[in-house]
Amino acid sequence: MVVMDGVGVGHAPDASAFGDEGSDTLGNLARAVGGLNLPNFQKIGLGNCAPIQGVEPCDSPIACTGRLQEVSNGKDSINGHWELCGLPTKLPFPTYPNAFPEDVVELVRKVSGREIIGNEVASGTEIMDRLGGEHVRTGALILYTSADSVLQILAHEGVVPLEEQYRICEGIHRALPDKHRVGRVIARPFIGEEGAFQRTPNRKDYAVEPIGPTVLDLFQESGVPVHGIGKVDTLFAGRGYTTATHTKANVEGIDLTLEKIRTMEHGFVFTNLLDFDQAWGHRNDIPGFVGGMEELDSRLPEFLDALQEGDLIVFTADHGNDPTTPSTDHSRENVPVIAWIGKGGNGVDLGVRMGFMDLAATLAEFFGLDWNGPGVSFLADLPH
Fold first, then answer.
1. Looking at the DSSP assignment, which residues form a beta bridge with residue 155?
2. Beta bridge pairs of residue 65
3. Main-chain dihedrals φ then ψ at residue 264, nearest 5 degrees
4. CB of 220 within 8 A of CB of 213?
5. Which of 235, 254, 268, 298 has the least C-beta neighbours within 10 A?
6. Per-domain residue ranges for the chain?
């Protein structure tokens, strides 16, 4: 299962409750550039999922295609990935649209032993450029959040060594009381000189552990190896994984996923391609997002070649992140589901599925396991 992080296909029916009415990551992106050129995605059926200028619907798509509508009360990566694995969440994680209250700031100050600057809802790159110099001069940590349930600590690697940054964030994660238990505490290291600061790939997430069983737990109990590629293991606090390999860019995630497909005899590969969200969506980088989709499109024939008879592959997403809107945050959108077995062919319309957890039910059935959680399997609809 390849999660194209942030690649939504149109605002969800309840998008207005999240401030995201009109968001349509791929649709708006295509309109912004006069159409997307994704010939391989067109062949497998991306244009059958939703209207996307330049990506026409296919009469005989390789894959079965549809849309998943989120039921969890949130739009961040944890909500999305947990629901994909069969754990929808009704109680939202706390968010801080007016920044953190003083008791949280004092906790961060106490755990870190350092002064705090910032404490804003901000873009990480913008607040780094604006407050990075003060941080370097004083050693005070930059504290910020976003529309998601995150507490982020930004610090220069030359001022606060990486191990100290990790220790601080892990300590905050453990110390937060229940009412302030955010989905993730994130270390955001950066380097460079004032006027030319840049974030490094040494980010580290400390996430809450899933509050109930997921299909990954079922796999672990049943002896199905689970190999995480990208940030996926951090979103489950490491639970349910046999191995986990973190990546620094989409291309690395694609390469590692293809290597696993070609060499693994049995098991589940769970990949997150993070650049769509982290590098382009959050920065409203339209050319970058378009280039990333074209790059992945160019690699799709390798996936088709690597799959053996009986192998199941799914491309999907965890939320939207529309780079054409003023917001730089995640967007409440339906996400694509594109699935096929072996070399594919004769794909059918899976429709709009209520809940990402239909994927968990499908994966469990594929491995011959009894899934007692929510979701309706669509495995029988996949020609094989």
1. 189
2. 338, 349
3. -85, 135
4. no
5. 298
6. 2-88+209-375, 102-207
What is the spatial distance between Cα 69 and Cα 337, in angstroms, rounded to a whole number? 10
Nearest to 27 by CA among 9, 13, 42: 9
| Residue 339, SS3 per DSSP | strand
Rounded Cα gap, residues 65 and 49, in angstroms: 6
DSSP secondary structure string, 78-92? HHHHHHHTT---SSP
The conformation of residue 307, written as its DSSP 8-state character, comes to: P
Give me the residues paired with residue 154 across strands: 142, 188
- Which residues make Cβ contacts (< 8 Å) with residue 185, sequence separation at least 6? 150, 151, 152, 153, 169, 170, 172, 173, 176, 205, 206
Q: What is the pLDDT along the chain (384 residues), one digit of tens a residue?
A: 999 999 999 999 999 999 999 999 999 999 999 999 999 999 999 999 999 999 999 999 999 999 999 999 989 899 999 999 999 998 778 999 999 999 999 999 999 999 999 999 998 999 999 999 999 999 999 999 987 899 999 999 999 999 999 999 999 999 999 999 999 999 999 999 999 999 998 999 998 999 999 999 999 999 999 999 999 999 999 999 999 999 989 999 999 999 999 999 999 999 999 999 989 999 899 999 999 999 999 999 999 999 999 999 999 999 999 999 998 889 999 999 999 999 988 899 999 999 999 999 999 999 999 999 999 999 999 987
Q: How far apart are CA 335 and CA 345, in angstroms?
A: 22
Distance of alpha carbon 28 from alpha carbon 34, whole angstroms:
10
66/339 Cα distance (integer angstroms): 9
Report how far residue 141's alpha carbon sits from residue 294's, in angstroms, rounded to the nearest whole number.
Answer: 38
Element (H, E) at 352: strand 349-354
Same fold, 2-88+209-375 and 102-207: no
* Class of 2-88+209-375 in CATH: alpha beta
CATH placement of domain 102-207: 3.30.70.1250
